[in-house]
């Protein structure tokens, strides 16, 4: 009996660790729905999910589960109630913030804490600077945009809760069309370089001498967690091109998943002029070893897509569940786009001309401007859902939260591998009179009323 009790006691730390991960995952999923659906507004207290979140938080505190066990007292508090920042992290951020206009490159294995560290660093820098640039190269789990985007966002306000991501309108973005750069690393790198060049051009001060410009706006570069094989090569190329002032490398106790020690991106011909900061992941196990925080990225991506298209409706709309959003989108007024006025491009495969409309219907597309410059990079304004296609009239029906002033410039639809969340395809289509917006060649629009005939292929069929 004593042996059984002893073994049970030994299992308690592991049980707490698994329970902590499960509660965190559930809190993230439930918290994303009410908060990101209504921008800059607190969720209604009547919302069942929000009440469940409060219960989870209370339960977590009652069980005294924390990230690093007995080391909690040694940590600095953060703006979020359930995020603890290790002293090693706060020291790193303090060192960076004391530097003159830093360019910070954050890297590490998947789920090691890059996003949390970047949010914390962003908040600290915003206490010193009126605005901070954020270059997001993680197409799988971007910080301020839907998935599949590379973007540059200028942030002006502190994030009040480090546990909750939020959507922001980027100053420049490119639609890569996939959640990983595996399909086309060269195009991915060209997008990263183009956005960084834009940052240098817009927020640099030209001076004489060896350096082409001095930066007047600090930059945080968030990177994907693919750090092996081709992913490692891509990361090294990014580092050598950007040449940041600081590189923050986050490691865990799983050595085989970490990046190499030291300034791994330098070769014999380059001198190291970058400040390398090596820190451990904040999440630790019962033996105080830094561990990876395992989470399923797919549902989080779906939630981010749903939060994005929730912006089609005003913040005071009574839409707080996925079912309500699905019905709202199914009956939402779409833009009527003449097919002759736009170009259609699939980013990662060749589609026969006879199959273009079949592949395009009921998909998410990037709304972009076809560039005629030497690089031919299609700067993007956001996403749209191809709600239906009327081949007889020669029009597409598109739903998007992109402002009308931006739509006037759109002349290119980019199709990738980003799919509509399955829960949004379950709303039944209601035929009848629907208000649509006619979009001309230059996306000038006028309101017209159409009966959506059976020949229109509907997303909600």
From TrEMBL:
<comment type="similarity">
    <text>Belongs to the Clp1 family. NOL9/GRC3 subfamily.</text>
</comment>
<dbReference type="GO" id="GO:0051731">
    <property type="term" value="F:polynucleotide 5'-hydroxyl-kinase activity"/>
</dbReference>
<feature type="domain" description="Clp1 P-loop">
    <location>
        <begin position="108"/>
        <end position="310"/>
    </location>
</feature>
<keyword id="KW-0067">ATP-binding</keyword>
<feature type="domain" description="NOL9 C-terminal">
    <location>
        <begin position="331"/>
        <end position="421"/>
    </location>
</feature>
<keyword id="KW-0808">Transferase</keyword>
<dbReference type="Pfam" id="PF25467">
    <property type="entry name" value="NOL9_C"/>
</dbReference>
<keyword id="KW-0418">Kinase</keyword>
<dbReference type="InterPro" id="IPR057570">
    <property type="entry name" value="NOL9_C"/>
</dbReference>
<dbReference type="GO" id="GO:0005524">
    <property type="term" value="F:ATP binding"/>
</dbReference>
<keyword id="KW-0698">rRNA processing</keyword>
<dbReference type="InterPro" id="IPR027417">
    <property type="entry name" value="P-loop_NTPase"/>
</dbReference>
<keyword id="KW-0539">Nucleus</keyword>
<dbReference type="GO" id="GO:0005730">
    <property type="term" value="C:nucleolus"/>
</dbReference>
<keyword id="KW-0547">Nucleotide-binding</keyword>
<dbReference type="InterPro" id="IPR045116">
    <property type="entry name" value="Clp1/Grc3"/>
</dbReference>
<dbReference type="Pfam" id="PF16575">
    <property type="entry name" value="CLP1_P"/>
</dbReference>
<protein>
    <recommendedName>
        <fullName>Polynucleotide 5'-hydroxyl-kinase NOL9</fullName>
    </recommendedName>
</protein>
<dbReference type="InterPro" id="IPR032319">
    <property type="entry name" value="CLP1_P"/>
</dbReference>
<dbReference type="GO" id="GO:0000448">
    <property type="term" value="P:cleavage in ITS2 between 5.8S rRNA and LSU-rRNA of tricistronic rRNA transcript (SSU-rRNA, 5.8S rRNA, LSU-rRNA)"/>
</dbReference>
């Amino acid at each position: 009996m004593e042996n059984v009790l002893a073994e049970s006691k030994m299992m308690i730390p592991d049980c707490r660790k698994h329970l902590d991960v499960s509660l965190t995952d559930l809190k993230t999923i439930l918290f994303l729905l009410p908060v990101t659906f209504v921008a800059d507004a607190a969720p209604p207290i009547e919302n069942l999910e929000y009440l469940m979140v409060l219960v989870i938080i209370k339960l977590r505190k009652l069980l005294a589960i924390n990230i690093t066990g007995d080391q909690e007292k040694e940590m600095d508090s953060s703006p979020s109630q359930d995020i603890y920042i290790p002293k090693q992290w706060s020291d790193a951020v303090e060192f960076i913030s004391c530097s003159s206009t830093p360019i910070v490159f954050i890297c590490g294995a998947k789920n090691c804490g890059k996003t949390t560290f970047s949010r914390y660093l962003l908040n600290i820098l915003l206490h010193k600077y009126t605005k901070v640039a954020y270059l997001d190269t993680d197409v799988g789990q971007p910080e301020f945009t839907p998935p599949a985007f590379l973007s540059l966002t200028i942030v002006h306000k502190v994030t009040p809760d480090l546990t909750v991501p939020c959507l922001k309108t980027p100053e420049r973005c490119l639609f890569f069309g996939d959640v990983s750069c595996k399909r086309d690393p060269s195009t991915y790198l060209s997008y990263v370089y183009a956005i960084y060049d834009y940052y240098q051009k817009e927020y640099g001060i030209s001076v004489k001498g060896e350096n082409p410009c001095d930066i007047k706006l600090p930059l945080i570069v968030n990177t994907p967690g693919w750090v092996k094989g081709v992913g490692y090569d891509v990361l090294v190329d990014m580092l050598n091109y950007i040449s940041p002032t600081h590189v923050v490398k986050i490691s865990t106790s799983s050595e085989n998943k970490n990046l190499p020690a030291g300034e791994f991106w330098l070769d014999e011909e380059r001198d190291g002029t970058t400040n390398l900061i090596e820190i451990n992941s904040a999440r630790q196990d019962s033996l105080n070893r830094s561990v990876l925080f395992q989470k399923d990225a797919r549902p989080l991506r779906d939630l981010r897509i749903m939060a994005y298209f929730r912006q089609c409706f005003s913040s005071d709309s009574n839409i707080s569940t996925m079912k309500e959003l699905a019905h709202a989108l199914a009956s939402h007024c779409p833009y009527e786009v003449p097919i002759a006025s736009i170009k259609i491009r699939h980013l990662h495969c060749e589609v026969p001309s006879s199959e273009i409309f079949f592949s395009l219907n009921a998909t998410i597309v990037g709304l972009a401007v076809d560039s005629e410059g030497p690089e031919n990079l299609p700067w993007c304004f956001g996403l749209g859902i191809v709600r239906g296609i009327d081949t007889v009239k020669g029009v597409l029906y598109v739903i998007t939260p992109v402002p009308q002033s931006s739509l006037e410039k759109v002349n290119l639809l980019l199709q990738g591998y980003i799919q509509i969340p399955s829960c949004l395809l379950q709303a039944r289509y209601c035929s009848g009179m629907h208000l649509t917006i006619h979009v001309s060649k230059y996306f000038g629009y006028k309101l017209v009323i159409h009966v959506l005939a059976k020949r229109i292929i509907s997303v909600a069929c």
